[in-house]
Amino acid sequence: MTQTAERLIRNISDTALWVAVYRARENDRPDALFRDPYARKLAGERGEQIAKQMESRVSHEWPYIARTVRFDQILRDQIKDGADMIVNLAAGLDTRPYHMELPSSLKWVEVDLPAMIDYKEELLRKETPRCQLRRVKLDLADVAARRALFKELGSTAKKALIISEGLIVYLSRDEVLALSKDLAEPAGFRNWAIDIASPVLLKMLQKELPMLSQSGSPLKFGPAEGPDFFTAAGWKPVEVYSMLKTASQLKRLPSFMLRFFALLPESNGRQGSRPWSGVCRLTKIERTA
């Protein structure tokens, strides 16, 4: 890896600049699947440079477009179904509170590192969110602090949806399990939207994206159990969407080979032998007396 690449990706927060580039490119398409008019401004020139570095060997754009579409779908469906709070963990440069059609009464809480929130607030200071937006500066690795926040939020929400887009792949298995258990505690936390990778895909990405490890942000989590990993922590998968099949349906796959693989039968259970990724909605398993 070159010194230029090392300087471009300094820490995990810089990956938000990279992903914002993909949203900006989709926004600019005449057949855009979603609109994010703030993405290019937030990504900046460094975001473009990071994206080019990441794409030096493999195109990574299509899974992020598919992921965004599925998270949007889950958000809309859950809000329609009565979700009164959205808790966005490691929110990064997500601008959904500014551009999605949202109820003005909806409470939206973004949680991220202080530097990321400061950067985002500076660039969006003249914009007005469409719902009740609150930002919390917090390192989710601080277990005591996150539990206190979850307890506070869960006591005020009746039907909160947690979203953690692009987060858990950077955590260890034990860290994901601990976070899952903490999120299952508050009564008001009812649903959780995640993205997840199989062990085979995780290894492929680790090899294709060595700059993430070099920057101190290695990809770690790809459970062989697939979405069922979370049942031990009190969550059950109720919606599972393959990134590949979603991208195929959306006509965003860049090669014939990927389009061919998208024709193979769906596999949403254990994920030990194929390069698979998906977006899932988990719902909390109700405790019995």
Regarding CATH, which class?
Alpha Beta
* CATH architecture call: 3-Layer(aba) Sandwich
How would you state the average pLDDT, rounded? 91
How far do the termini sit from each other? 56 Å
Please state roughly what percent of the residues sit in beta strands, choosing from under 5%, 5-15%, 15-25%, 25-35%, 35-45% or over 45%.
15-25%
For the largest beta sheet, what order do the strands appear in spatially? 3-2-1-4-5-7-6
Spans of at least 5 consecutive residues whose pLDDT stays below 50 are: 1-6
Question: Structural class of the secondary structure composition?
Answer: alpha/beta
Topology summary:
Blueprint (H helix, E strand, L loop, with lengths): L2 H6 L5 H15 L10 H16 L6 H20 L4 E5 L6 H4 L7 E6 L1 H10 L8 E6 L5 H14 L3 E5 L8 H12 L4 E9 L1 H10 L1 H5 L20 E8 H7 L6 H6 L15 E8 L5
Parallel strand pairs: 1-2, 1-4, 2-3, 4-5
Antiparallel strand pairs: 5-7, 6-7
